């Protein structure tokens, strides 16, 4: 089945189109699912992606040029029809549906099934081969409702008015989602952000995502930050940057926070289990819903999901793609 | 159960001691009786539930979860209880991920206490269905024994004391007379009578010493004794029972049955140093020799002791003081009067297991200084100075007891690796691994780690060290940074011992940073040989 597509450590290669999906090295033709650095690398000659993803790439790599493909739009390359369909992961994220020789293949990139005010929701597409991510491909990973986690954050904030809550969140996607969800819970105080995420938040706003009042944390005094939420990339949580903050409660928004030891290793006091990836229940439910003839599993805990498929009489195999999965991104 | 499981979660993630105390205190005030008492017992490690075996837990999980997925998950998470708490699939008719509130902590403990092995899996499985993942974690930790949330019994008691505005030493006084769920203790906290501990072998808080900084004392007012390097121990005998307590008030009777058996039947409370028989520290001249702290360490922390351990590392107690003789409380007497009573009492004890700490005969403070310097060869840590008229009071009281340690040994080491600290220091590289040379570096000598140190510097020095590490990093291994081997640090330490656990073959006691030697080239740091020559 599907002799026109092959998985290599550098990405998924679509032979008739001579194009790669999310290649990890510079190539001639790249079809990109979303803007995270491990999927959208710089240096390709030609890029096809959603307008949001192209804007994110331009922000990251400067003068990146590419062909903009809207959700639902189909392009034709060497006899392969490619359609970008919402994946619900971050702003502009897409699954790519490939159609050729009467076969339908879906490459999910990263995805989740939960509602997210900062991006379009995942749409299941019936297909023959479903190439799915498996970041949280073990049954220990079940993300709680996000309202519960946001309430934990706000509870800690209100319990310590002299401190600030410093939330570590990936600069693209997670940070904006946490801010938008905090707003949705009725918290409209200014939120202070690390310099590294200012331009990304501006980009989200340009695409119509309301993030409320944001200020630069770097420019604020310790007194201004008391009782406030500060958002920074995870790498700044316990680093020199955070020393200026008024006795911060260190929080981290990530699916990995479900495992106690992982949270402790990162010196996190307030773990927030908030993920932009599908959890175990979402992964398995999605495979049932899409009902492909074959499931290929990439980046993450592939063995678990492959085993599950096999015990449910579904054909599956693990792909050895390398270079994906930034832990901070979970 | 939810309040308790939230308390455990809070304790797992909280690093600051004060914040942990506040969490415990809040729970103790708010939890209903007797949940609060059971929780206190669980936190102090005084809750003994006939263990549900790990195999029983595995069995109930494998009834509901694919064994392969369970094994993969277990490998990933590491901890059995945590794995099960995370992946437990509730029965289809149960509400999703919430603690439905139907189980109280007391009900859970009550049920677990009476559980037979055959019914354990069924009951446990049913309980898991009513809890959220935090609740399941708490339940499984309770059922298998050992919460491991990183707090000591003392901290839990301090939290209780803080909740009700009681002095923690008062809590210690009555603690061992009570048992879970501590109804009398909570009644006292809420304004009732203080429980009466008489007739039970309970712990009394130790009297402790201040370091003697630069001052001088008059030996007419102060008596001097040797400072032994063992652990402080309190022996409490009621005539029927005998208990040994460590400095933190932990019951260590089971760890030292040789000592406990040798004083069975006594009716007194004694204070002394627990040591192992040997020759490493002191001589007959100092009132008797003892083995090094290293030897004693082989005996510490064991729940049961093998016959081999008992014969290879026989323990004894060097007595310092007597608090009670029969029912007579001697703590208000001066030290000299207690000393007389101690000497008289000690004649009744087995001399192979008990002796009385010698008083140093020195004409004046200067002469004592000379004697103290001479004690280095005998590997003695220093001397203690005790006011002759001092009553026995809990804790450190200024002016009564002093410890006058000998000056530390020092060695020049090279910084090899650095790691970030905890709490306030979590953004600083403040924990250092230090090495000495195996031989002349010009002739191919290499650095081997000899110590880890994370104290002794000022805040300014820490900032400097932190930027040194960041600017001189060679490699990163997870949280550890390997640095260029260029910075010499003078390390002060109390003593150094043979060690099979370290590649260098030596282990230091209390290493700390004495000076940063930016002036000294790394090649001129000390050899391991130099350190070996200081082994006591």
From TrEMBL, chain A:
SUPFAM superfamilies in the record: Metallo-hydrolase/oxidoreductase
UniProt KW Hydrolase keyword: yes
Alphabetized InterPro entries for the sequence: MBL (IPR050698), Metallo-B-lactamas (IPR001279), RibonucZ/Hydroxyglut_hydro (IPR036866), Xnuc_lig_assoc (IPR026360)
GO MF, one annotated term: exonuclease activity
Q: Where is the Metallo-beta-lactamase domain?
A: 8-170
Q: Which leading EC class covers this enzyme? A: hydrolase
* Keywords in alphabetical order: Exonuclease, Hydrolase, Ligase, Nuclease
Q: Look up the EC number in the record and give it.
A: 3.1.-.-
Q: What is this protein called?
A: Ligase-associated DNA damage response exonuclease
Automatic annotation (TrEMBL), chain B:
Where along the sequence do coiled-coil regions lie?
A: none
**GO molecular-function term, one example from the UniProt record:** ATP binding
Query: Does the record bear Magnesium in its keywords?
Result: yes
| Location of the ATP-dependent DNA ligase family profile domain | 308-438
User: Any idea which UniProt keywords this protein has?
Assistant: ATP-binding, Cell cycle, Cell division, DNA damage, DNA recombination, DNA repair, DNA replication, Ligase, Magnesium, Metal-binding, Nucleotide-binding
Q: What is its EC number?
A: 6.5.1.1
Q: Name one Pfam family in it.
A: DNA_ligase_A_N
Catalytic activity from the UniProt record = ATP + (deoxyribonucleotide)n-3'-hydroxyl + 5'-phospho-(deoxyribonucleotide)m = (deoxyribonucleotide)n+m + AMP + diphosphate
Q: Which GO terms describe its biological process?
A: cell division; DNA recombination; DNA repair; DNA replication
State what protein this is by name: DNA ligase (ATP)
Task: Look up and give the organism this protein is from.
Answer: Sphingomonas montanisoli
């Amino acid at each position: 089945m599907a002799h026109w597509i092959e998985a290599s450590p550098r990405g998924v290669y679509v032979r008739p189109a001579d194009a790669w999906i999310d290649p990890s090295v510079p190539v001639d033709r790249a079809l990109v699912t979303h803007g995270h650095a491990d999927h959208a690398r710089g240096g390709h000659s030609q890029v096809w992606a959603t307008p949001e993803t192209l804007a994110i790439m331009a922000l990251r790599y400067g003068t990146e040029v590419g062909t903009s493909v809207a959700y639902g739009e189909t392009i034709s390359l060497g006899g392969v029809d490619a359609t970008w369909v919402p994946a619900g992961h971050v702003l502009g994220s897409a699954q790519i549906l490939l159609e050729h020789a009467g076969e339908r293949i879906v490459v999910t990139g990263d995805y989740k099934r939960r509602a997210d005010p900062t991006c379009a929701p995942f749409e299941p597409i019936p297909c023959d081969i479903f190439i799915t991510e498996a970041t949280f491909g073990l049954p220990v990973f079940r993300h709680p409702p996000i309202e519960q986690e946001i309430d934990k954050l706000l509870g800690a904030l209100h319990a310590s008015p002299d401190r600030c809550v410093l939330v570590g969140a990936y600069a693209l996607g997670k940070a904006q989602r946490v801010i938008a969800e905090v707003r949705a819970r009725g918290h409209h105080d200014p939120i202070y952000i690390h310099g590294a995420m200012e331009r990304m938040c501006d980009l989200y706003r340009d695409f119509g995502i309301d993030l409320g009042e944001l200020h630069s944390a770097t420019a604020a005094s310790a007194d201004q930050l008391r009782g406030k939420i500060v958002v920074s990339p995870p790498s700044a949580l316990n680093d020199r940057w955070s020393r200026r903050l008024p006795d911060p409660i260190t929080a981290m928004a990530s699916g990995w926070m479900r495992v106690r030891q992982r949270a402790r290793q990162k010196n996190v006091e307030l773990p927030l289990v908030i993920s932009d990836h599908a959890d175990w229940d979402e992964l398995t439910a999605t495979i049932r819903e899409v009902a492909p003839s074959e499931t290929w599993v990439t980046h993450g805990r592939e063995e678990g999901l492959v085993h599950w498929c096999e015990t449910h009489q579904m054909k599956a195999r693990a792909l050895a793609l390398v270079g994906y999965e930034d832990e901070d991104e979970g | 159960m939810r309040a308790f499981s939230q308390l455990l979660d809070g304790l797992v993630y909280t690093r600051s001691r004060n914040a942990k105390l506040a969490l415990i205190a809040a729970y103790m005030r708010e939890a209903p009786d007797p949940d609060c008492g059971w929780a206190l017992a669980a936190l102090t490690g005084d809750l003994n539930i006939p263990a549900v075996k790990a195999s029983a837990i595995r069995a109930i999980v494998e009834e509901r979860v694919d064994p392969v997925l369970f094994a993969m998950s277990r490998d990933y998470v590491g901890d059995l209880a945590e794995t099960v708490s995370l992946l437990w699939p509730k029965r289809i008719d149960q509400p999703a991920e919430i603690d439905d509130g139907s189980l109280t902590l007391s009900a859970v403990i009550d049920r677990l206490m009476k559980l037979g092995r055959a019914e354990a899996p069924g009951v446990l499985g049913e309980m898991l269905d009513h809890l959220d993942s935090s609740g399941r974690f708490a339940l499984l930790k309770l059922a298998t024994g050992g919460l491991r949330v990183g707090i000591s019994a003392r901290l839990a008691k301090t939290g209780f004391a803080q909740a009700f505005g009681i002095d923690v030493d008062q809590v210690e006084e009555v603690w061992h007379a009570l048992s879970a769920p501590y109804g009398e203790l909570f009644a006292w906290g809420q304004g009732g009578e203080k429980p009466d501990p008489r007739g039970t072998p309970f712990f009394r808080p130790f009297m402790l010493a201040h370091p003697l900084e630069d001052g001088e004392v008059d030996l007419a007012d102060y008596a001097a004794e040797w400072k032994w390097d063992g652990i402080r121990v309190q022996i409490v005998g009621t005539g029927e029972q005998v208990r040994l307590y460590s400095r933190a008030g932990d019951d260590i009777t089971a760890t030292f049955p040789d000592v406990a058996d040798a004083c069975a039947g006594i009716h007194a409370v004694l204070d002394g140093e627990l040591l192992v028989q040997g020759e490493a520290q002191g001589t007959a001249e100092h009132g008797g020799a003892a083995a090094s702290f290293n030897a004693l360490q082989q005996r510490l922390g064991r729940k049961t002791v093998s016959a081999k351990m008992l014969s290879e590392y026989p323990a004894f107690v060097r007595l310092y003081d007597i608090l009670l003789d029969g029912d007579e409380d001697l703590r208000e007497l001066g030290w000299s009067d207690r000393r007389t009573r101690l000497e008289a009492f000690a004649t009744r004890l087995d001399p192979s297991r008990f002796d009385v700490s010698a008083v140093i005969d020195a004409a004046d403070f200067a002469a004592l200084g000379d004697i103290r310097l001479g004690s280095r060869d005998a590997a003695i840590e220093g001397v203690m100075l005790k006011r002759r008229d001092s009553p026995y009071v809990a804790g450190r009281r200024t002016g009564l007891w002093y410890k006058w340690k000998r000056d530390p040994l020092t060695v020049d080491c090279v910084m090899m690796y650095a790691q970030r600290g905890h709490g306030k220091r979590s953004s600083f590289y403040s924990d250092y691994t230090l090495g000495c040379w195996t031989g002349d570096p010009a002739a191919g000598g290499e650095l081997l780690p000899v110590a880890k140190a994370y104290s002794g510097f000022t805040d300014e020095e820490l900032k400097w060290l932190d930027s040194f590490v960041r600017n001189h990093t060679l490699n990163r291994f997870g949280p550890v940074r390997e640095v260029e081997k260029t910075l010499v640090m003078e390390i002060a330490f109390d003593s150094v011992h043979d060690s099979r656990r370290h590649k260098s073959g030596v282990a230091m006691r209390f290493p700390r940073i004495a000076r940063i030697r930016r002036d000294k080239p790394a090649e001129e740091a000390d050899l391991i040989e130099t350190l070996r020559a200081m082994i006591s």
